[in-house]
Amino acid sequence: MTETTAYGLSTRSVHAGERRDAEGAVHTPLYNHSTFAFDSTADLLDVVEGRKTGNLYTRYGLNPTIRATEAKLADLEGGEQALAFSSGMAAEAATFLAHCRTGGHIVCIGEVYGGTFELLGDNLPQVGITTTFLRADEVGRLPQVLTGRTRVVFFETPANPTLTVFDIAAISAQARAAGALTVVDNTFATPVNQNPLQHGADLVVHSATKYLGGHSDLTAGALIGPAELLAPVAMWRKNLGQVIAPETAFLLARSLRSLPVRVRAQNDAAAAVAAFLHTHPRVARSHYPGLATGEQKRIVDAQMRGGGGMLSAVLNADADQTAAVVDRLLLFAIAPSLGGVESLVTQPITTTHHGMDPAERAKRGIADSMIRLSVGLEDADDLIADLAQALDAD
Ligand SMILES: *Cc1c(COP(=O)(O)O)cnc(C)c1O
């Protein structure tokens, strides 16, 4: 099936991009092959010279399993094309290298994944690409920090771990007016809850390691957008050797077929957990897009279809008491990832924001007593009971 956009999201998750083979397999087989043969030199040249799309060499991404998974990813995000990578960081790095070049400037808004922070702050300056970081409360300064050299405006929404949402349409319009591309990390929301391209973003990046993979058993990344903007990124991916492995692409396609079912169940369970935490006496503050108020709620309503499976809470406790609450949880595993079927918990000061200066953390609203939860596919009642026993024990 190639033209599937008239169907609903669940139908597209199952059918988009799939190719039946001569054996009748019900979905695209795993082609582990590194290279593909042609009937004639003329046929080979058609692919090499770009007159036809076809299979050629797996590191180029020209492999049937990889291409089928990319077609599904593009369809789910409503983009023209997708590139699949060996990790989310690979997708980000190739995007920045392809679209910034030496002398280029990036604006990064709000909290971002620790690896992204390091890439922008430590690695890219070594090749002459610099970044201005704006805290969430400084987003109004975007027009002042955009310069003639700004090539990319980058942000996550909702952002980790404060679950702050950013207005994709407003930021994209400001970036476009300054001649910069808007790149949105849609890892937390997933295409089930939000399609940034519909709201004016130029490119969407994913750590497919999280919800898209969904089972904590693969590492992958994706970039989705117009073919014209992906072409230069594909060249970096090819020559840096960052393509997704065919086995991983096969597993990722397997996962994408159940993405809407999983994410909608996680939305519902997270909303129930957030409602419980919101009124618990041990909780000073809880953050969940589905419980946002004021301007944050306006943004959620304008661009999100569901609140997602991620939430955080600041406890009435010190750092050690918070660690004790975390350690008492039985169903939430202490682990620094998210988006899988098993619920996970982290204390951001011990993981994503471990290296950050405490004063800087405080400015960003990341308290010592903050916990971040990734709600899995367990029964919400069981998760709530587990949180209740952990919070009420002392
Ligand atoms: C995990 C994560 C990344 C990095 O992805 P990897 O697949 O680990 O390389 C980027 N952005 C967000 C929001 C993430 O959670």
From TrEMBL:
The modification N6-(pyridoxal phosphate)lysine is found at K210. PROSITE patterns: CYS_MET_METAB_PP. Its EC number is 4.4.1.2. Residues 1-20 are annotated as: Disordered. It catalyses: L-homocysteine + H2O = 2-oxobutanoate + hydrogen sulfide + NH4(+) + H(+); L-methionine + H2O = methanethiol + 2-oxobutanoate + NH4(+). Pfam families: Cys_Met_Meta_PP. InterPro entries: Cys/Met-Metab_PyrdxlP-dep_enz, Cys_met_metab_PP, PyrdxlP-dep_Trfase, PyrdxlP-dep_Trfase_major, PyrdxlP-dep_Trfase_small. Keywords: Pyridoxal phosphate. Residues 1-13 have a biased composition (Polar residues). Gene3D superfamilies: Aspartate Aminotransferase, domain 1, Type I PLP-dependent aspartate aminotransferase-like (Major domain). Its cofactor is pyridoxal 5'-phosphate. One of its GO terms (molecular function) is pyridoxal phosphate binding. GO terms for cellular component: cytoplasm. SUPFAM superfamilies: PLP-dependent transferases. It comes from the Bacteria. CDD domains: CGS_like. One of its GO terms (biological process) is transsulfuration. Belongs to the trans-sulfuration enzymes family. This is homocysteine desulfhydrase.
